[in-house]
C-alpha cells in the first residue's frame, strides 16, 4: 500500500509539457478552452461561462500572449439591455489593452440614451481589431442617418485608418462589417411576411445611407 501511495503521489506531481507542443497545437487547445458556441452577454462576466476556462491565461506570460487574442478575438460580445450596458462598459475598461483583440460586438439595446451610445462608441475605439459591429434596431431607430453617421463617425474613421496602415495586407473595407439589424416580426400569415419585408428594407436603407455618409468622410 505504501508503494501504491508513493506512485499516486508521483503521478500527481507530474505535469504535461504543454509548452513543448507546437504552437499550432497550442492554439487548437486555446480555441477549445476559450471559444464559446454562443455570444457573450457582457454582464455575464467570464466567471459565469462555465463551459470556458479563461484561467489558463494566468498560467504564464507565453500562454497569456498566445491565448489572449483567442479569448477576445474569437468570441462575439453582446450588449443586449440597459443593465448589460453598464457592465459591458465596465468590462471594456477592466480588460484595458486586451480590448484591442475584440473583433465582433453586437449592440442590441432596447432604449439607450444618445449619451450612452456616444460613450459606448468612444470606448469601442479601444477595439482596434473590430471587424463586425451589429447595431440593433433599438439603437438606430431614434436617429436620422446623418446624426447616426456623425455619432459613429470617429470610431469608424479610426478603424479605417488602422486598416490603411497595414501595408502588407489588402486593406479591409471596415464598412463591410457594419450592419444594422431589423426588428423580428413574430406571428404567421401573409401580413407578417409583408411587415417583416418592410422592416428589413427599412434597416437596409438606413444602413446604406449611413455607410454612404461615412465613406464620404474617408481620406
TrEMBL record:
InterPro entries: AN11006-like (IPR038883). It comes from the Eukaryota. PANTHER family: F-BOX DOMAIN-CONTAINING PROTEIN. This is F-box domain-containing protein.
Amino acid at each position: 500500500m505504501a508503494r501504491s501511495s508513493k506512485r499516486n503521489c508521483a503521478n500527481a506531481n507530474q505535469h504535461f509539457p504543454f509548452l513543448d507542443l507546437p504552437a499550432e497545437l497550442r492554439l487548437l487547445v486555446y480555441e477549445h478552452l476559450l471559444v464559446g458556441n454562443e455570444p457573450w452577454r457582457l454582464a455575464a462576466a467570464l466567471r459565469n461561462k462555465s463551459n470556458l476556462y479563461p484561467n489558463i491565461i494566468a498560467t504564464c506570460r507565453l500562454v497569456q500572449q498566445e491565448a489572449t487574442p483567442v479569448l477576445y478575438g474569437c468570441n462575439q460580445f453582446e450588449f443586449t439591455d440597459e443593465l448589460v450596458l453598464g457592465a459591458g462598459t465596465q468590462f471594456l475598461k477592466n480588460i484595458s489593452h486586451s480590448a484591442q483583440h475584440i473583433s465582433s460586438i453586437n449592440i442590441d439595446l432596447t432604449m439607450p440614451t444618445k449619451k450612452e451610445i456616444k460613450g459606448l462608441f468612444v470606448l469601442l475605439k479601444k477595439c482596434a481589431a473590430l471587424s463586425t459591429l451589429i447595431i440593433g434596431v433599438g439603437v438606430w431607430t431614434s436617429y436620422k442617418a446623418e446624426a447616426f453617421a456623425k455619432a459613429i463617425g470617429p470610431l469608424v474613421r479610426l478603424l479605417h485608418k488602422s486598416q490603411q496602415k497595414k501595408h502588407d495586407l489588402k486593406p479591409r473595407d471596415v464598412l463591410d462589417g457594419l450592419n444594422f439589424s431589423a426588428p423580428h416580426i413574430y406571428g404567421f400569415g401573409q401580413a407578417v411576411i409583408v411587415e417583416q419585408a418592410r422592416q428589413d428594407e427599412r434597416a437596409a436603407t438606413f444602413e446604406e445611407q449611413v455607410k454612404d455618409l461615412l465613406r464620404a468622410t474617408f481620406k
